[in-house]
Write a structure and sequence with these properties.
The complex is a heterodimer of chains A (587) and B (490).
Chain A lengths: L7 H8 L8 H21 L3 E8 L2 E8 L1 H20 L6 H19 L3 H20 L4 H32 L14 H13 L8 H5 L5 H23 L3 H19 L4 H22 L2 H32 L15 H14 L6 H15 L3 H27 L13 H19 L2 H4 L13 H20 L1 H4 L9 H75 L4 H22 L1
Antiparallel strand pairs in A: 1-2
Helix pairs in contact in A: 1-2, 1-4, 2-3, 3-4, 3-9, 3-12, 3-16, 4-5, 4-9, 5-6, 5-9, 6-7, 7-9, 9-11, 9-12, 10-11, 10-15, 11-12, 11-14, 11-15, 12-13, 12-14, 12-16, 13-15, 13-16, 14-15, 14-16, 15-18
Chain B lengths: L6 H6 L1 H19 L8 H16 L7 E3 L4 E3 L1 H28 L3 H20 L3 H19 L6 H32 L4 H8 L6 H18 L7 H8 L2 H26 L4 H24 L4 H22 L2 H28 L15 H4 L1 H15 L5 H15 L3 H26 L13 H19 L2 H12 L12
Antiparallel strand pairs in B: 1-2
Helix pairs in contact in B: 2-3, 2-5, 3-4, 3-5, 4-5, 4-11, 4-14, 4-19, 4-20, 5-6, 5-11, 6-7, 6-11, 7-9, 7-10, 8-11, 9-11, 9-12, 10-11, 10-13, 11-13, 11-14, 12-13, 12-18, 13-14, 13-17, 13-18, 14-16, 14-17, 14-19, 14-20, 16-18, 16-19, 17-18, 17-19
The chains are: A mainly alpha (587), B mainly alpha (490).
Chain lengths: 587, 490
């Protein structure tokens, strides 16, 4: 150890074990104090190198603290705090321990200065996340958790193989910029491992599979750490890798297209994580200072507003037990506070000016523009509009407004609202005073988000999306059963809108809906369904096929154990003959 | 005194002498004690093991040959002797409760455990084919009886008979190979043999000898296709004996393997490396895949133990001093995690329940959190997940393989680890997620708690701080071979 230094990640991981031994008020206090202490520690930490341990003749660095690591550590610790507040009412120690371990492992991965400690925390993260999913204790959750473990073991093995190859090549375990080794097997393996965790399609099917199955509180933690620590690792090791630009942009659109098909609220949000992470990966690929700043800032803002969105959906799940959009509707009367807090998150993810997404996402998009990549710029803008359409309009519409289904609901427990409030405040503060975040970024920021052109362009985009939404509402129905509750719309919209809607708008709707038939149903839905089919038939079927085959071979092997000693001896003799054959032909 | 034997030879085999006396004391005390107080024999046995461990202390850095090259007293042997004695002690602790439930008489049982340990110690020290064979027989005969020790149980009887028949068959094969080696070199001393074979043309008869010895040793370490006995015997034998068999017998056989091939046949390195490479690949793969569909945990651990023999063979194939170090380290670590896992199974054994089926682990977390946590740790360690010791062991094995340019072998090893995680995690899922199956407490006892505590501590400590173990293993691996004789350590 170079200096006195307590690892904030280890603080959480070790501290989590206090929880099972406390009760009542003390327990709640500990739940708040642990992440708060970690947050304070991250904030007061000075850049430098701490916690160096020599192991196997290598330096293992647990604390490589620089500006990039610090900014990620702030938001990880902050969201851990918010998440713990959100789950204060949950009486399940196992969940809390798993969640704190998960957060601690993510902090550990961020501060890891070498591959060995990175791998250690990487695996711990996968394991604790899987436990969080399993702890919902439903058959579907157990199955999803199991699949989660298997996918991440694959990723972990890629990482390990890459690390060992890298080590044997360079003799060093330091985790830094890997671009000098581009094209080598180690480079590719480590990149694959990071991309698995970042949920990059086609390696990302685990994310919408597992996250919606987690508990309401567990999902908040899940959204924050795994993908964003992967983004951190990519920024650290793979900045400027060309393939990431295209992959990221495709991912941003992919997530939105998939979200079209979704009816489960949290699954829809999960696809939007993929989309948003796409922006960050695109930024990493662009590799300019502005793009890397943008990726970092967007990760920061994204963790907060995504947590807020999941908390909102989780609150509805908690109160009503419902998860399908087509079953909900009319909750705005019962849950006005949840609605308004959720809408802050929805505006943030949709990059509405004065909310956090606006000042961060635009950095990535502008970086694409500055690098003269028109196609990327266009794709990212397209995805922006799709995001607003689904998280900002479709989901709240069906969940809170829509047809009143007479659901009985109330506001969620107070701690949930407090946690949502904290996240909402953070979203707004970043949106209004972006310099708070900009001053923490790894590179100097000259970027000014609030230019007239930018603001009007954004508002225009959002406005047209909103208009499109209400025009195409029928085509966007998650299930045909849900119909537009025009009552509410007219009442709120006032008579002016009413007249307009009955007259000109009705005629417009007729022609547009014919157009939308072609565009929405035939094209977008068709492509979406095709993609899902490929995912199911191709990727999943391959996994299932390999599994089945292995199981069959296993059964055959078991059958070979007949229990007859003579046969055993015969097989041994055959083994000797095989050895002779090997010697004769192989030597 | 017979010619060629001096008084100092007797001093050098002091640990073996202490252990033999201890075994005899156990037999005598067994007769003296009244029947209901024979449970105390466990403590006599532990005392004998402790005394043997203490008598190893003066030989920390000895490096001599005893009785003109029958036995070597060096750090390599010392390392293995510690493994055997610790494994024996843990087995005894596990057995106390088990024997009570089964109602078996403890006297011969503990005596035979000590005899088997004695055989292992001689195997690890032997640098002469005759000595090695005597050690092997001492160990094997003890295990034949121990496997069938639960006399009323058909499974146990069947296991013993199968083990005996196949064991005799494989010993015959081994002996045939050894006699060819003797015939071609004119000596039974491995170090003299290495000098005799050095620089010779490859002889077809010697290749045959290598194949036969590989087959014989392959049986002992349960390498595919010589593994057929292992699942049946592991399932049928009393659980503590299964544990001892899968740890002690396997480690001793690896010690024998290293002695015979690295000290005796370095000139044939190319041939036996190829054979072991093939064995390692097929053993890992078959062991892991067959384990996937087992519903009996003892049987599943049998296959897992077969697979682990495959991993350890990777270190032998690499053949560098780093590879041998990795082998020693892995065997040491493996002893703790495997014994710990079997201890949990012993804990689940009650008068009416075998406690071996996967479903018996259902909801264990709710019934006994510590046992479930311990099992979780052992499963993660066997699967090679950090921060457990199993990860360090595997990491070292695979990196040794890559170091020696056996990248392909390391890749297969890693893939196999991934497969193995499926069945290890399955147990964990049963323990933590499934509903309670039995609704009653597992039969824990203080001795069993000690076993679990030691195994958990070792699995964690060696995972976090493996350096001391690495250094000891490294020093041990370097003492292989007499001065002046080139070994195949590269």
């Amino acid at each position: 150890m170079t200096r006195e230094w307590i690892h904030p990640g280890l603080l959480l991981i070790a501290g989590a074990w206090i929880l099972p031994f406390c009760k009542g008020r003390t327990k709640r206090a500990v739940m708040i104090l642990l992440p708060a202490a970690a947050l304070v520690e991250c904030v007061v930490m000075q850049p430098g190198t701490y916690g160096v341990v020599r192991l196997l003749g290598q330096e293992v660095i647990f604390g490589r603290v620089d500006r990039l690591a610090l900014v990620f550590s702030y938001v990880f610790a902050l969201v851990a705090l918010i998440g713990m507040v959100y789950s204060l009412h949950v009486n399940d120690d196992a969940q809390h321990v798993a969640a704190l371990t998960y957060a601690g492992a993510a902090l550990g991965a961020v501060f890891a200065g070498d591959f060995l400690s990175l791998f250690l925390f990487w695996e711990l993260m996968a394991l604790s996340a899987a436990i969080l999913v399993l702890l919902r204790r439903r058959p579907a959750a157990v199955a999803a958790g199991f699949r989660y473990v298997l996918v991440h073991i694959f990723g972990g093995l890629c990482l390990l193989a890459g690390i060992v190859l890298h080590w044997s090549h360079t003799g060093s375990l330091r985790f830094g910029d890997l671009s000098p080794y581009a094209g080598s097997a180690a480079f590719t393996l480590i990149l694959i491992a990071f991309l698995v965790n970042a949920a990059v399609p086609p390696l990302g099917a685990w994310l919408p599979d597992a996250y919606p199955e987690a508990t309401a509180t567990g999902a908040v933690f899940l959204t924050a750490f795994t993908t964003k620590s992967a983004v951190y690792a990519l920024i650290r090791g793979f900045a400027g890798t060309e393939i990431l630009v295209w992959w990221g942009a495709a991912m941003a659109v992919y997530g939105v297209v998939y979200a079209v098909l979704e009816n489960d609220a949290r699954r829809l949000l999960a696809y939007h994580i993929i989309s948003q992470v796409g922006y960050m990966i695109c930024g990493v690929g662009l590799g300019t200072e502005l793009a890397l700043n943008g990726a970092t800032a967007h990760a920061f803002a994204h963790i907060l507003y995504k947590a807020l969105l999941f908390m909102g959906a989780g609150a509805v799940l908690q109160v009503t037990g419902l998860r399908k959009l087509s079953d909900m509707g009319g909750l705005y009367k019962m849950m006005p506070r949840t609605l308004s807090l959720y809408m802050v998150g929805a505006f943030a993810i949709s990059a509405v000016p004065l909310f956090s997404g606006f000042v961060t996402k635009s950095m990535v998009v502008s970086a694409a523009g500055e690098s003269h990549r028109a196609a990327i710029y266009l794709l990212l803008t397209l995805a922006s509009s799709g995001t607003f359409l689904h998280t900002g309009l479709k989901l709240p519409y069906y969940m809170f407004f829509g047809r009143d289904r007479g659901l009985r609901a109330e506001e969620p427990p107070r701690n949930m609202l407090v946690a949502m409030g904290l996240a909402a405040v953070a979203c707004v503060v970043i949106g209004v005073v972006p310099v708070v975040l900009y001053s923490q970024l790894p590179y100097r920021v000259d970027y000014i988000p609030f230019t007239v052109r930018h603001v009007t362009a954004t508002l225009g985009l959002l406005g047209f999306t909103a208009l499109g939404f209400f025009l195409l509402l029928k085509q966007l129905d998650p299930e045909p059963v849900v119909s537009l509750d025009t009552d509410w719309f007219y009442r709120r919209g006032g008579t002016a809108v009413q007249n307009f809607a009955q007259g000109a708008l009705a005629r417009l709707e007729g022609s547009v809906s014919r157009l939308s038939d072609v565009v929405m149903q035939r094209f977008v839905l068709g492509v979406g369904a095709q993609l899902r089919d490929i995912d199911l038939r191709g990727v999943d079927a391959m996994m299932v096929g390999i599994g089945r085959l292995t199981e069959e071979v296993s059964c055959d092997l078991t059958l070979a154990m007949s229990g007859h000693v003579q046969r055993y001896a015969l097989i041994m003799a055959a083994g000797i003959l095989a050895g002779v054959a090997l010697a004769v032909f192989g030597l | 005194m017979p010619p060629g034997i001096s008084a100092s030879d007797f001093y050098n085999i002091l640990p073996e002498l202490v252990l033999t006396s201890g075994a005899l004391v156990v037999l005598i005390v067994d007769v003296l004690l009244p029947k209901e107080r024979r449970g105390a024999l466990a403590w006599v046995t532990l005392l004998a093991i402790g005394a043997t461990l203490a008598s190893l202390v003066p030989f920390r850095s000895t490096h001599v040959e005893v009785a003109q090259g029958l036995l070597a007293v060096d750090q390599f042997a010392l390392f293995f002797k510690v493994v055997f004695l610790v494994a024996a002690a843990i087995t005894v602790l596990m057995s106390v409760r088990y024997l009570e439930i089964e109602g078996a008489s403890p006297g011969e049982y503990y005596f035979l455990i000590l005899c088997a340990t004695l055989g292992m110690m001689i195997m690890a020290g032997g640098i002469d084919l005759i000595t090695i064979f005597i050690g092997l027989e001492t160990m094997a005969v003890s295990f034949y009886i121990l496997a069938g020790f639960i006399k009323p149980s058909h499974r146990s009887n069947e296991a013993a008979v199968k083990y005996f028949l196949l064991g005799a068959f494989s010993l015959g094969i081994l002996l045939y190979g050894m006699s060819l080696m003797y015939g071609l070199s004119g000596t039974t001393n491995l170090r003299v043999m290495a000098a005799a074979f050095a620089g010779q043309e490859t002889d077809a008869r010697l290749v045959l000898a290598v194949i036969l010895v590989v087959a014989g040793v392959g049986f002992k370490i349960a390498a595919v296709p010589f593994h057929m006995w292992a699942p049946d015997v592991y399932e049928g034998a009393p659980t503590p004996i299964t544990a001892f068999l899968s740890v002690g017998s396997k480690a001793a056989s690896f010690a024998m393997l290293i002695r015979i091939f690295l000290e005796g046949l370095p000139s044939m390195g190319h041939d036996w490396r190829l054979l072991f490479e093939a064995l390692a690949i097929i053993t890992m793969t078959v062991g892991n895949i067959a384990a996937l569909t087992q519903s009996n945990v003892k049987r599943m651990l049998a296959y897992s133990s077969i697979a682990h023999a495959g991993y350890v063979l990777i270190g032998i194939v690499a053949g560098t001093s780093r590879g041998i170090t990795a082998t020693l380290v892995y065997l040491f670590i493996y002893a703790f995690m495997q014994l710990g896992a079997f201890a949990v199974i012993v804990g689940l054994r009650r008068a009416d329940v075998a406690g071996e089926e996967l479903k018996d682990f259902g909801g264990l977390h709710a019934r006994n959190p510590f046992a479930a946590f311990a099992m979780l740790l052992f499963m993660l360690s066997l699967g090679g997940i950090p921060p457990t010791a199993g990860f360090m062991g595997k990491f070292w094995l695979f990196s040794a393989a890559i170091d020696a340019h056996y990248n392909w072998l390391a890749v297969i090893g890693v893939l196999n680890s991934a497969v193995s995680l499926y069945y290890y995690v399955r147990i964990v899922v049963f323990m933590y997620v499934k509903k309670e199956a039995l609704g009653s407490e597992p039969a824990t006892s203080p001795t069993l708690a000690v076993v679990l505590g030691v195994a958990v501590a070792a699995t964690l400590v060696l995972g976090v701080y493996p350096r001391l173990l690495f250094e000891l293993a490294d020093a041990s691996a370097r003492t292989l071979g007499a001065a002046g004789v080139t070994t195949s350590l590269r």
